[in-house]
Amino acid sequence: MSTRKLKIGLLGCGTVGGGLVELVAKNSALIRERAGVELGITKILVRDPVKERPGVDRALLTTEPDKVLNNGCDLVVELVGGIEPARDFIQRSLFAGKHVVTANKALLALDGFTLLHAAEKQKRRLGFEASVCGAIPIIRSLRNGLVGNRIQSITGILNGTCNYILTRMTEDGIDVDTALADAQARGFAEADPSLDVDGHDAAQKLKILAELALSARLSVDAIEAEGIRDINADDIRTAKQLGYVIKHVATAEVKGDAVSLQVRPMLLPRDHQLAAVRDENNAVLVRGDAVGEMLFCGKGAGSLPSASAVLSDIVDIACHRGGFSAAPQQSLPVTSSDQQCKHYVRVPVADPSAIGVITSVLERSGIGVTRASAQWARKAAGVHQVQVFTTPASSQNVRRCMQDCADLSTGKPVILPAA
Amino acid sequence: MSTRKLKIGLLGCGTVGGGLVELVAKNSALIRERAGVELGITKILVRDPVKERPGVDRALLTTEPDKVLNNGCDLVVELVGGIEPARDFIQRSLFAGKHVVTANKALLALDGFTLLHAAEKQKRRLGFEASVCGAIPIIRSLRNGLVGNRIQSITGILNGTCNYILTRMTEDGIDVDTALADAQARGFAEADPSLDVDGHDAAQKLKILAELALSARLSVDAIEAEGIRDINADDIRTAKQLGYVIKHVATAEVKGDAVSLQVRPMLLPRDHQLAAVRDENNAVLVRGDAVGEMLFCGKGAGSLPSASAVLSDIVDIACHRGGFSAAPQQSLPVTSSDQQCKHYVRVPVADPSAIGVITSVLERSGIGVTRASAQWARKAAGVHQVQVFTTPASSQNVRRCMQDCADLSTGKPVILPAA
């Protein structure tokens, strides 16, 4: 096998960029042998050229994007993140005839199709394996491995921060704030964790996966997401008693000619395949008409796992392989999803005897109650609460009932569907 | 995107071949849209052209291989199985300038490199995603998705029949023969189940995966394998009491400049990622230096799942993508693996009081015993037995001890390592 050379221009040298430089240096001989490609990073855009970057050749650094784009590279790796100037960098690279690899999930969720169209028009390739679930080859599997399947649903644990926090709460019995502080201390959560714990990150990833799986643009700008901030130790404990685990789950499900999208914490039966996914791991459960259910599980973030995904795109492009960049023409409507399932409900109340009214309101709406308990706050500053577990009912119906009980509650009720 | 045509010659129309015909008919519009390829099956080799094949155009059938190979097709799908004439068909197809897709694991395990070399020489592609773990895109993931990783180990549940039998034994408390009969009744086991239950099928798959992951030919003709025929209900029950599940596990582990290969039933901790893999499912746990541990799980066999894998190779080839066919030059020695771990041992004995001698022999060899029990047969025809659970020790050492106790035992002892 002859060896080709591929010159890479790198935009951004943070966690993933640094990992890429490390991985290319470490495993370049292996890649040359496996794929017949000699990878070389020719220029690296950074904000601060003085910063210490072990293993990175200082001579490659520049603060001027044009020095990267016009340096005769074959492929540009965009790792600066955010919408602008990342979008501009990608478009200019494509117009200059360069292939592009990006990990930019926010940009792809917002405007991936425009970029895919631009790549198609320029007959260049746009790789984005690293944008969803880090090292897990889920983009490649949806594009290639499952190409002969009509995808029926995708169910995933797409945010490692949420999963780490819920795992700590479940296994160590700590509350959400303590678990979040722990996640931050270990580098699994940002200083501003809202993108993760409020569910927006998972929603962006779900949109990318669903559009790819369904080969259609989804007619929604942003998916509504529920996060995990309101989950408390009582929720975790009660779920456990009922035989469930609380997980932050993103779901895309084909329903006729539309797709239903959901991102929220929910109860999973203890023996559900996703219930065993612990700590900062990600997992995606895909259901296709030929393959049935298939599970992919692994590290969803981190320097080397994400760099591994970027590298797989680079090698695919270098070998002229690894998936078309064609952007589908069709568009699918997104339905307001109404699930028919059991629900766990916790209502903060001034008076725990409200349990009678709450269960009556549910029963009057045709929603059975299989378990209800009233809890008096153990501390003076604590919150009294009522917990209810229902028979299968529509989420809208359960929500409506809780609105009817609004004058009894002292805060937002937690309503979790159970799979 | 323009649409290309790809003419497919199909050799064999059994379970997988029939599934392929069905899938191409069902999802061809989807594939055209996603990949810009129009697939057409031009000729099908069958043994019996009169047999009823719903959905298969009788005009395409032939009993003459040459009519398939010389019919102007671009790609040949080999699904006749076995060594010959399958090998001859593949070689002739490659020499005739056709790409080849095969699901033939026996042939690939025996002589995959010769075929890969032939493909490389002819500048044609050889796809074999369907040869291991059916629908799970594990070949593609090892070749492409994890291309930047040095693979450290592969641990898998590679045989669906064994996993189905062990699952039934564990969940329903039935014995191995009843579970096997159940598997046969459901079509998860062949009339002659020896290839599956004696571990040879898993060993073939492990060889293919390990050679691919390590980019090296393994200097072993066949991997020694242990099957599951000797596992009984007591083993399952005792494992459960100890917090383990018995699974049939295939492992390839890099040890210095060699690789250790093992195929055998073993005890997995209940919370091990592979312990949750139930029924006829397959799973592969890959550890790479960049990605850490990654799990792939799904249907390892069956008409449509395997056909989905064949189809993914076909589309990759049609799109000029999906992995090099280069055959690595290097060869890796296979070590006789000696694990240092806890062991479960069951010895059939004439006199259960042999427990004293057996534990003494172990203790004298430096192997601690953390649990031992002697069981009197409940029925006259039954077998007395001694069960022992050890402290971490080498498998060779445990085996040697059991040989020293050979005169006490009335049959082959069961020795299972615990992960």
Task: Looking at this protein, list some descriptive labels.
homodimer, 419 residues, alpha/beta, Rossmann fold, Dihydrodipicolinate Reductase, domain 2, Alpha-Beta Plaits, 6-stranded mixed sheet, 13 helices, 26% strand
Number of β-strand runs of chain A: 20
Looking at how many chains there are and whether they match, the oligomeric state comes to homodimer
Q: Mean pLDDT of chain A, nearest integer?
A: 92
| Integer tally of domains of chain A | 3
Q: What is the number of helices of chain A?
A: 13
Output the CATH class name of the largest domain in chain A.
Alpha Beta
Largest sheet: spatial strand order of chain A: 3-2-1-4-5-6
Question: How big a fraction of the residues of chain A is strand?
Answer: 25-35%
Could you name the ranges of chain A where pLDDT drops below 50 across 5 or more consecutive residues? none
Q: Tell me the radius of gyration of chain A.
A: 24 Å
Query: What kind of sheet is the major sheet of chain A?
Result: 6 strands, parallel
CATH homologous superfamily identity of the largest domain in chain A: Dihydrodipicolinate Reductase, domain 2
Structural class of chain A: alpha/beta
Biggest protein-protein interface? A-B, 61 and 61 residues
Q: What CATH architecture of the largest domain in chain A would you give?
A: 2-Layer Sandwich
